[in-house]
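Tokens in:
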């Protein structure tokens, strides 16, 4: 990503500015995720590889009204 920011840093920035914004992290590097200690909200993480149905289910769960 531009400026050397990674997806986790972007998620934290979004939460700082717009805490109501739903965020779903997808990653193939679960072991690299930081511990939840000190976080105001837990991360919603979907590990790769995943099936399309799993992704759709998770998006529906965080975005009310999506069918």
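Residues out:
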């Amino acid at each position: 990503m531009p400026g050397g920011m990674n997806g986790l840093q972007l998620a934290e920035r979004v939460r700082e500015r717009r805490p109501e914004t739903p965020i779903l992290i997808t990653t193939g590097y679960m072991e690299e995720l930081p511990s939840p200690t000190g976080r105001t909200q837990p991360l919603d993480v979907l590990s790769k590889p995943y099936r399309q149905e799993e992704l759709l289910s998770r998006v529906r769960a965080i975005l009310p009204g999506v069918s």
